[in-house]
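Long-time lurker. I teach an intro course on protein structure, and each term I like to show students one example going from raw sequence to a predicted 3D structure in token notation. This year I'd like something fresh instead of my usual example. Would anyone be willing to generate the tokens for the chain below so I can use it in lecture? Attribution to the forum is fine with me.
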Amino acid sequence: MSMRIAVHVGGERGSEVAAEAQRHGHIVTRVSGHPELVAAFAERLVDVAIVAGDAALSVDLLAPADATGVRMVVLASTVAQRRRLTRLGLHEVVDARASWSVIEAALGRAPGNSAEPRSFSAVTIAVWGPHGAPGRTSVAISLAAELAMLDRTVVLIDADTHAASVAPALGLADGAPGFAVACRLARSGELTSAEVTRVSELAGAGDAEFRVLTGIPHSSRWTEVHPENVEAVLAECRGEADVVVVDVGASLERNEGGAARDAAAIAVLAAADVVVAVAAADPLGLARFVRIVPHVRDLIGGSLITVVNRVRASALGARPREQAASALARFAGIHGAVMIPDDRPAFDVAMLEAAPLATVAPRSAARLALRDLALSLLPPRADHAPRRRDRRRVLTPGRR
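-- Reply from a regular --
Happy to contribute to a lecture. Here you go:
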């Protein structure tokens, strides 16, 4: 099907894209600036705009495109550009060096006149915790379920390259790890929202339903998860979901001489809007946490929220909350940590039933604290309209 395409990409690359579009039967117009492009929108001279993802691309250009129903496909040359464009609500973002077949596929999946206004609220939440099993995965699963129950579309990613555990915790098959498959598709430029849906699994139930990209079943497969591909997967997930929750491994070591096993976790921490750092509420767990949290602060690109998990008097004394808060303030300069009370029976039921805490123990004190944490992380929405219909449209097809 022939389309009227405006190409706003400079230099030789712009000429290549325009020539390929013409060769495939499209009517092409080269534009040299945003005013010219906006004028073409207003006069309804184009159906699709292919633009460069530079810093000049902003809401000032997206708003008239949305108003006139013009499709927008953006060529991003860096990971930073992809992240910024996804924040702007752009879903059709491809690599600047992508082949014409990849660009044309993006043209075909662009939303067009029936698209809803772009939301600028997508957020990535990384959940990290040091060695010693502080309950990081349980917190990540709980946040995904709670945010889904707050009427947000959610994708949960298991990016732990040492001991992925989201799939067994939720009773999901992990023979074909969704996250590794998504990374491979991103490497070849073939990752789309439809592919994310295809390779992911549904978890939870009812209002607490969310999608999961399961982790690698064997730690030896960590080489399948390259940091640049991780960024691309996050960007694609952010394009379709309100919230992306990522469970990352404890180890954060760098290898300057080549590929590092922990590079995926480091990439996620750098790309996340919020890092939820989980500490175990016992003397050893807090000691481990305060030793490594300065290093975590150096890696993150967003804000840091500390969660102290399984707070109980038997491990910290008669006033466990005060003891944990005092230790964090004294040794790490952390104030206002979120305290999750210990509720081992409730978590045991959740593990036994392979379900989120919110669905098996809704009145648990731990669940209520995690719900409050999810509320504090809730991203603002540009339109305050319910999204239940969106979740069924985006997240239900391809259920496995």
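Some talking points for your students: The chain has two domains: 4-114, 123-394. Residues 197 and 397 are 7 Å apart (CA to CA).
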